[in-house]
Amino acid sequence: MADSVQMTLHELVLQATNLYADRRAVCFDDSSNKPPISYTYKEVVGFAKELMHFLQKHCDSPGRCEIGLYCHPGINLASWILGILQVPAAYCPIDPEAPPHLSSYLMRKYNLKYVLVDHNKAEKFIFSHSDWSQHVSSEIHHLGLTLFKMQCNGTAASVLLDDTQSRHRNTSISGDQKEDKANILEHDEGSYMDIRKTQLAYVLHTSGTTGIPKIVRVPHICIVPNILHLRSVFSVTQDDLLFLASPLTFDPSIIELFIALTSGACLLIVPHVIRMMPEKLCDAIFHRHKITVLQATPTFLRRFGTPSIRSMILSSSSSLRVLALGGEAFPAMNILRSWREAGNQTQIFNLYGITEVSSWATCYQIPEEAFDDRFEECSVPLGSPLFGTQVEVRDTNSLALQEGEGQVFVGGKQRICFLDDEIIVPLGTLRDTGDFAVVKGTNIFFLGRKDNQIKRHGKRVNIGVVQQATESLSQVETCAVTWYQQEKLVLFVVPRGDLEEKEIFKELQKCLPSPAIPDELLLIEALPFTLHGKIDVSKLNKIYSLQLQKKRHSCLVAGEEELWDRLQVIWKFLLGLPEDSSGAPENSTFLSSGGDSLLSLRLQEEVENLVGRAVPGLLEVILSKSIADIHSHVSKAVFQHGDLKGIRHNQKRKLSLMDKEDNDGQYVTLQGPENHSIVENGLKAFVALSRGNQVFMNTPKLIESHKRTFRYQLPCFCRVSYTTEKAVRSATEHGMKSSNFATETGPCNNTPAKQNSLSVPQLTLCLRWKSDTGKCVDASPLAVLSAEGESSATVYIGSHSHRMQALDLHSGSVKWERILGDRIESSACVSKCGNFIIVGCYDGLVYILKSSTGETFWTFTTEDAVKSSATLDSSTGLVFIGSHDQHTYALNINMKTCVWKLHCGGGSVFSSPCVNIQPHLLYIATLAGLLLAVNPNTGCSVWKYSCGKPLFSSPQCNQEYVCVGCVDKNLYCFNHSGQKILYVCQLDWKYL
């Protein structure tokens, strides 16, 4: 192995080709009626050689060369990768399913100059990435590829996350230090690995699920030992058939690909869509092709379900020799036993590793005796370090432990990858995995992610322990646990047969301490998973968010009598009492009946869900008084103006901006269920209005029942931008023909109404309410009206008193108020999901506040005052905002990252950016007089125009034109290509 370790990946494949030239190397089966397609080793290497010569001819990249690969796996995949490697260059997989702004961000972080695009994905790539131009590609047309070259012109946009990136750098040399310190250290080359003198194999990124995605550049010398050692452990030969289970952006795909191609074995590939369909996938890889080696995540395997796993994958007659599970916590042994049919001979391995030290660090084979039911139940160890890999468990003082709990670090003398902009890394560097483990004797046992260690009610809880305890129950097929909004422990269970929630809670209370008992339990049919085959926590949170909406609105009690009955049901459930037991006596107190402080919090939440609102002082009553007192307290707070029944069942009342009958004009209609609007994926259905003429309407797919109509009156000249489940569209109407707009919003009639002999009522205005903000208000209010009901309609406004207020639209009462760090001139903007409000401040911060409570979700720091108002891109969810530091920023609110920042040519950005959906452009006006048209996904300037004088005006656009007002008294109009159409001179205005 020692000699082979020094070889590159493609050299190992060429070596295998010399031995197995005519054997099958790759097989592609699209699960149609057509026979599978296969290439021999000789054919794969031949196509790779053609691509290599083409790239050497057309890619003029001096020094280190990295080439993007935008594709789904297909029959030509191996040739594409080998062709890039032989240039020599590193390949950088780009996921066609990723959001365009994320792909653009990653390509710029990779510093890519060239991208090879699968013919089938070329149209999608062009649409999503307009700053790339098609290169001469006729020579490789038969290989199914098109070469694109980066063409980012005009004002440069710098790729940026936020200041957290600089805080998380390690001690390796990077960034501005790299040239000077690299030269200083050249005399001691034996102590460091230098990226400029190291041949890279591929470039990936971490998932970013636990923080900011890191760019990982992997040398051949780092990954080759992994390939060779695992190939030996799995005893792979030319007779094996391996399945490409991992997506290209997940580094275990390298293991699958090159273990096969360096052994003379065959690699089986199926289309991306088949991988998403468990039944078809199981039939393809275990029935038709009978694979012998499978490497996958536990979640990937669980998708098949226990019956299929037991009858096909791990049956007594299974073709599968090797099953290697990694990327997530290894399943409990009782789960493995339930999966394995008697007589099965498959060898099962536990793999552990991190992308930052690609790919695997340890390996452990489950001994045969562990599958015996009489075998003592215990956790599965991580196993022994792979060739060249060092593993340590360190305490809080960074000292290696021989016994006890600590954090896992992995690395090795030459098992080194370069993270982000690292240039030089000391040999033997060990990376922090973010995982906790315990050392017992010679074994290391995985405990869970650092992020899974939460503090709950003053006690530390390991989410992984909760999951393991639940999975050990015989009624549970599989499960997942999330820490929802850092407030609630939510358990998701895929049950085996019929299962009642209370039974799960009873069992968990026997084996878990009180702080580890979940707040909520949801029974679901299957766990969602990411493209990397791991549990998709974000989708689970959306499922729970949807459940909360249903619960809050469908469970409202109609009156005091129903409240008492429902209170008794909740009381018995939380205390674990039988449903058919007699009700609690009126003088019963919760704590003396068996409750505790944690269950008291759950009781408070359940009662507030019943009445659909917060009840002040409720927790104190629960802790100290009787059930009758609880009922009385809630009744006084909720029913003093009558039962909820009249409110809940009043379908005739229209939710509108006014409590009057409908007026003539233009309306947007939302359809919703009878009692409330239930929205898929946890998104809220709402309409947001700002500055009187801007509307954002978020109407995700609604779950239909009896429909009611919510009507919002709009002025005749307005821009409507709204999102649906399938598409994002934009329409503008002002005396123009626009069939889509008329269809969605109704006709806009600008013709004055005919006068008649009857008296025409005159419009009069009267003060309905007012709110004291403390100082001058320069910001414009933002009104957000939810389809949930009138009580949710809210106005958000900031002032120079530093106050940010959320006010009830109908009463003017303050829902919440925040004091920010300085004056507020910026108008608020709502996020696409409706959960957050974005507002700029004179202190240089952009505040992202929870719309329901005002609690700070995130703050983003600029370098000067933020007077600009944020703008939402309804197609991507990105939020754009300018600063007096002369930059515009693109923020991903949910990921708490800045996707890009753009220097706007020297002038501060006072006005609000403007997004046009088709063509997809972002317009920015500056106090230096520049109007810039920018690609919203990348921050690259498309065109710009200098008006010569400051632009305080915010640009406005429709499908054909963009307009902006200037201090020189002119109104400028351009088409979306940047051609000036007209300008209106000498307008005598004071405000634009």
UniProtKB/TrEMBL annotation:
Matches recorded under Gene3D superfamilies: 3.30.300.30, N-terminal domain of ligase-like (3.40.50.12780), YVTN repeat-like/Quinoprotein amine dehydrogenase (2.130.10.10)
Domain of life: Eukaryota
GO biological process: one example: amino acid activation for nonribosomal peptide biosynthetic process
Alphabetized InterPro entries for the sequence: AASDH_AMP, AMP-bd_C_sf, AMP-binding_CS, AMP-dep_synth/lig_dom, ANL_N_sf, Beta-ala_Activ/Resist, PP-bd_ACP, PQQ_b-propeller_rpt
GO molecular function: ATP binding; ligase activity
SUPFAM superfamilies found in the cross-reference section: Acetyl-CoA synthetase-like, Quinoprotein alcohol dehydrogenase-like
Chain ranges of the Carrier domain: 561-638
Entry keywords, A to Z: ATP-binding, Fatty acid metabolism, Ligase, Lipid metabolism, Nucleotide-binding, Phosphopantetheine, Phosphoprotein
SMART domains according to UniProt: PQQ
Name of the molecule in the record: Beta-alanine-activating enzyme
Family: Belongs to the ATP-dependent AMP-binding enzyme family.
Coiled-coil blocks: none
